[in-house]
Amino acid sequence: MLSYGQSAFAIALALVASMLLVALLNRFWPVENRKIINDVNAWQMGVLGTTYGVILGFMLFTVWNDFRAAEMDVALETASLINVHRLAVGLPSSQKEIMQKLTVQYADAAVHQEWPAMQTQRENHSGGIVLQQMWQTLTSTQAETPGQVSSLDHMTSAMSNLSERRRLREEQHENSLPAVLWVLLIVGGIATVVSSCLLGNDKRWLHYGQVLALTFVVSVTLAAIADLARPFEGAVAVAPTPLQRALVIMQQSAPQ
């Protein structure tokens, strides 16, 4: 995904392109001639602009909801990991130490290896390897007292939640908007801006301002959709802050 600088450059490029188009139209197709078709063109632009605005708003709402869901899933993944770390206290001594060390390793791998990889569209399964070791430790644990049996049951539930949230994070990282939707958004945006350029207006400065405002809104919204559609990449991304805090907490309580 684009950085803030790259997004700003793309928006500026769209603004310049729209201004050049208006200038070319004013030069080769005089305003007096374009005013003749204003009645028809304005009506068509109204329908096109309304339709495109609904599509654009719906897409922005959808990707924002998905972005918030990704943030929530990371928080829930962290909560499950902390639960595993704390519930390990009820296991036999040897399994307790192993499990608590593995939870610290999982958080460390997620923060320092998986997150940088996700931000650059690379795969990294270091956390998954640690998770597999956690499952192996859990399934090999033999409960000897009723308290250990209870802890083992709660650990199994917490581990299942952790695995589920991790799977959702991996899916959210891999998912992207279908190409057909990007074609619709980009072509629709170009058609809407070009339609506004075709209007004839005796006050040229006002026409330039209207086209500039429309282009700015469309281009900024498209940039926002592009960034939010990949929640773990780009300038606006889900941060590993919950896992970072959990790592500090677990490191303080884990056996050395």
UniProtKB/TrEMBL annotation:
Which controlled-vocabulary keywords does the entry list? Membrane, Transmembrane, Transmembrane helix
- Record flagged with keyword Transmembrane: yes
Show the stretches that span the lipid bilayer: 6-25, 45-64, 179-199, 211-229
What name does UniProt use for this protein? DUF4239 domain-containing protein
Report the source organism: Edaphobacter dinghuensis
